[in-house]
Specification:
Elements lengths: L5 H15 L4 E4 L8 E5 L2 E11 L2 E8 L11
Antiparallel strand pairs: 1-2, 2-3, 3-4
Length: 75
């Protein structure tokens, strides 16, 4: 995995807001080097984004975790 630049963070945020239809979505730079870029919705961190470069092609992987306690009650 390689570091995500400030420009990439801005472009990812624009893309993900459009793709997921959520203007409250933000992509946040890590507070210090070596930590993951965070994906948040309305200020709540819901996942991380990782950059991969292979043979000159760049891709981004979003890892999202949903806790069972955050789910609505079962019917």
């Amino acid at each position: 995995m390689s570091a995500i630049s400030t420009s990439e963070i801005s472009r990812l945020q624009t893309c993900l807001r459009r793709l997921l239809g959520s203007p409250g979505l933000t992509v946040n730079a890590p507070p210090r080097a070596g930590l993951s870029v965070e994906l948040a919705v309305n200020g709540e961190v819901v996942g991380t984004i990782h950059r991969d470069e292979d043979e000159g092609e760049v891709s981004y992987a979003v890892h999202m975790t949903v806790l069972e306690e955050d789910l609505p009650p079962a019917r």
